[in-house]
């Protein structure tokens, strides 16, 4: 991002298998997460998108993290960050305008894909949003659910 000189790095090489789902909806999820990271990361900040596969309970999952060096989210607000119309604080919403719907929509889309989203954050150091989406495999072949 030129005007803020934010560096964006990505490492998705460890995602070898495709996630099955609605491409437009899943694109909206990651567009929202990256847009938020850009919005809440100050000048000369850093955003990193990483992905890997992890087996859990007989399901191969894609795990994608969007990390930023932004302003962070107070610990006492983390449990409400996915609530509709929720914004961390009134003063921040003046500096960082938005409706408070993006993360709610992202969570709904991910849940419709049998996935999940979580967040960890430290004030003044940034936030990490972790998305988990199932890659269904049977006998080494991707199950298409058709």
Automatic annotation (TrEMBL):
InterPro entries in UniProt: HATPase_C_sf, HATPase_dom, His_kinase_dom, Sensor_HK_Regulatory, Sig_transdc_His_kin-like_C
Gene Ontology BP, a term: phosphorelay signal transduction system
Subcellular location: Cell membrane
Domain Histidine kinase stretches: 1-137
GO cellular component term, pick one: plasma membrane
Signal peptide: none
Swiss-Prot/TrEMBL catalytic activity: ATP + protein L-histidine = ADP + protein N-phospho-L-histidine
Enzyme Commission code(s) on record: 2.7.13.3
UniProt keyword annotations, A-Z: ATP-binding, Cell membrane, Kinase, Membrane, Nucleotide-binding, Phosphoprotein, Transferase, Two-component regulatory system
Top-rank taxon, per record: Bacteria
Main localization, broad class: membrane
Molecular function terms, GO-annotated: ATP binding; protein histidine kinase activity
Xref: PANTHER family: HISTIDINE KINASE 1, TWO-COMPONENT HISTIDINE KINASE
Protein name: histidine kinase
Originating organism: candidate division WOR-3 bacterium
């Amino acid at each position: 991002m030129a005007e803020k000189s934010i560096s964006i790095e990505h490492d998705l090489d460890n995602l070898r298998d495709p996630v099955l789902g609605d491409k437009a909806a899943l694109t909206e999820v990651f567009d929202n997460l990256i847009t938020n990271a850009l919005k809440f990361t100050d000048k000369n900040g850093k955003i990193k998108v990483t992905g890997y596969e992890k087996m859990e309970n007989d399901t191969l999952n894609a795990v994608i993290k969007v990390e930023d060096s932004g302003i962070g989210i107070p610990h006492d607000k983390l449990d409400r960050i996915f609530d509709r119309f929720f914004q961390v604080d009134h003063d921040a919403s003046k500096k960082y305008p938005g409706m408070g719907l993006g993360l709610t929509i992202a969570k709904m889309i991910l849940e419709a894909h049998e996935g999940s989203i979580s967040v960890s954050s430290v004030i003044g150091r940034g936030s990490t949003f972790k998305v988990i989406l199932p890659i269904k495999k049977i006998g080494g072949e991707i199950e298409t659910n058709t």
